[in-house]
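Hey, resending since the last one bounced:
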Amino acid sequence: MPKLKTKKAAAKRFKRTKNGKIIRRKAFSNHLKTSKSAKRRRNLRKGTLLSPADAANVKHMLPYG
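The structure tokens again:
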């Protein structure tokens, strides 16, 4: 059976943790930052776990991740 191809767009956006969960970046953190509080901007820097419903699709896109 041939090797599976990784979806490169997904590989740039998601990482897999040691236990197999998927980490993503938070939205609303790229521009218009002056109107957001420092606390909000600081919390947007951190990654967060992808919901289990979406994680199943992303795991298919990253077969060897």
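The two ends are 19 Å apart (CA to CA).

Sorry for the duplicate.
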